[in-house]
Amino acid sequence: xxxxxxCAGIALLAATVGGCRRSTPPAHDRxxxxxxxxxxxxxxxxxxxxxxxSGDLSVIDAATLAPVATIALGKRPRGIAASPDGRxxxxxxxxxxxxxxxxxxxxxxxxxxxxxxxxxxxxDQGRLVQVLPSGPDPEQLAVSHDGTRVFVAxxxxxxxxxxxxxxxxxASRFRVGGEPEGVSIAPxxxxxxxxSEADGDVSxxxxxxxxxxxxxxxxxxxxxxxxxxxxxxxxxxxxTGASLTLVDAKRLRPLRTIALGAGMRPxxxxxxxxxxxxxxxxxRSRLVLVLDTSxxxxxxxxxxxxxxxxxxxxxxxxxxYTANGPSNDVSxxxxGSRxxxxxxxxxxxxxGIALVNRARAGS
Length: 363
Known about the structure:
Layout: E1 28-29, E2 45-51, E3 56-61, E4 66-72, E5 80-82, E6 88-93, E7 117-122, E8 127-132, E9 138-143, E10 149-154, E11 159-164, E12 169-175, E13 180-185, E14 191-196, E15 201-206, E16 211-217, E17 226-227, E18 233-238, E19 243-248, E20 253-259, E21 269-271, E22 277-281, E23 287-292, E24 297-303, E25 308-313, E26 319-324, E27 329-334, E28 339-345, E29 350-357
Parallel strand pairs: 1-28
Antiparallel strand pairs: 2-3, 2-29, 3-4, 5-6, 6-7, 7-8, 9-10, 10-11, 11-12, 13-14, 14-15, 15-16, 17-18, 18-19, 19-20, 21-22, 22-23, 23-24, 25-26, 26-27, 27-28
């Protein structure tokens, strides 16, 4: 489940990782709008942030870094992905109660399965226009390279669903590991990788064959997958193992375990456009780690704020954005100086984040 266990403070990193830099985050920008605005006011290039606790989507103008709109979504919006043309957003909505590891689920209210689904936000209209079936408790998702399908991890049922966007129906389902979360499509597009928090593995779905091609063992509690631009390698974080697993993405076998240091809780991953660096969010450890992919060593870190999870990277690779759940804000990180330059107030419990160029929809 999404909330994390307690972990050690960031001071522990100093004894294990050299050359890391931290910065003191600036004061928050709290100009968060409270009501939806017309689509004509949505930015050409925007940051879209899912707020799990307030059930809405914060819109930030990427040029001015000012909040410009809030769009109502539904219960527990988490994973978010854009269509290839930048005209729509797909958001995982869940009616399952929010519960962390170790919680006695018998004490929780029953899930509201009517609230489960994939919300479609039309960015021309600036509103939620439809909710498609997803399977129970969708957490993360990814959109196919051709924009025709959405792949969904259904946390409560240990399944992955494939939603056909033309029909609005679930086209197929795959049995994967327990508590599936991360969903990533390999650069070539033929394989979908689904991480299993409960089983510590990744199910690799071969789309042409219509089956799970292989299950790859990684570290405990994997949360995401990032690929080298050429698709040759993949990095999978182990939240409770304080490590990354480097995987041969062609042969589907683990190559090595990369230790990140005591107290690290790696969660989100995003690859630089040139493939030289991997950025890893560490949740309650507060840091974004910078990994040199040629040596697989940590070469820097940034104190992003309380529990950074979802991340987005600018196309030029110069700016990173993190969603910080407990502080209800987004950190803007300049990767040249490896410093937080601004924190922008959003809704309650920011979880996922997407950077979308809406202008290209008309090109």
